Amino acid sequence: MSTAYDPAREGAQMAFDGRMSYTDYLGLDAILTAQHPRSDAHDEMLFIIQHQTSELWMRLALHEIGAARDRLGAGETRQAFKMLTRVARIFEQLNSAWDVLRTMTPSDYTTFRAALGESSGFQSWQYRLVEYAVGNRNTALLKPHAHRPDLTAALEAELAKPSLYDVAVKALAEAGFDIPTEVLDRDLRQPWAQSDAVEAAWREVYADPAKYWELYELAEKLVDFEDYFRRWRFNHVTTVERVIGFKRGTGGTAGVSYLRRMLEVQLFPELWALRTSL
């Protein structure tokens, strides 16, 4: 007769009185009890977990973007590349999450939509922080967070720093490209203004990748990230239209119409424009 497998015989730790366990290390008690549906609808749990996990992925994305910006600013480009690759893969995961949410039908959503009140993904301060960190800066979007001084302070602190794209363009200048002073010394709180000079510099990089390999790879890492970011936005629009059609969003936005306008926003416009003129 065979005996049941016992991992303890091979040295697996089985007793955790006074020891750190997996649950302790990951803080799972807090995470797994953070779901508080406000209705009896079956699909509300899906909706909550979808958005909570997205926020966790965005927290990691912010960790990586901030570190990549610091490394790039210090001239440590190879280390920054690894982090930027990870950010793109994080958004690949975020894209896959929409596939799960799309299993919720319009009928399912209507069973608990009223329970959301005026809460909306539009109010995600971490999403706003991601946009600010990479370069899409719109101070009007601070307003939904005015009721939380701590969140406003975090967003304002980000607006005071050069964005990831600002640091990338500075790297062009440090490599000897002619980047105008008004670009390098721009008001960091303002949205990025597309620059012919910056496009010309990137175009020169792409015209001779062997000569400017690190800048060329940096450019492609940025484009790779924006590619996944755009897909995330597109999947967001598609999911919202599939579930609520053209109703207004719970937070008061125009819903699908608003999200479609966001599809037109480019994070690194010169890197996309040069492809036509190269």
Describe the secondary-structure layout:
Elements: H1 22-26, H2 28-32, H3 44-73, H4 77-101, H5 106-110, H6 125-134, H7 149-159, H8 164-174, H9 181-184, H10 196-207, H11 213-244, H12 256-262, H13 269-277
Helix pairs in contact: 3-4, 3-6, 3-8, 4-11, 6-7, 8-11, 10-13, 11-12
What is the CATH topology descriptor? Methane Monooxygenase Hydroxylase, Chain G, domain 1
Query: Count of helical segments?
Result: 13
Describe the largest sheet: none
The average pLDDT value, as a whole number, equals: 93
CATH architecture: Up-down Bundle
Distance between the termini: 73 Å
Poorly predicted runs of 5 or more residues: none
How many distinct domains?
1
Please count the beta strands (DSSP E, at least 2 residues each).
0
- Strand and helix order: HHHHHHHHHHHHH
CATH class wording: Mainly Alpha
Q: In a nutshell, what does this entry contain?
A:
The chain has 278 residues and is mainly alpha-helical. The chain has one domain (38-277): Up-down Bundle (Methane Monooxygenase Hydroxylase, Chain G, domain 1), CATH 1.20.58.480. The protein has helices at residues 22-26, 28-32, 44-73, 77-101, 106-110, 125-134, 149-159, 164-174, 181-184, 196-207, 213-244, 256-262, 269-277.
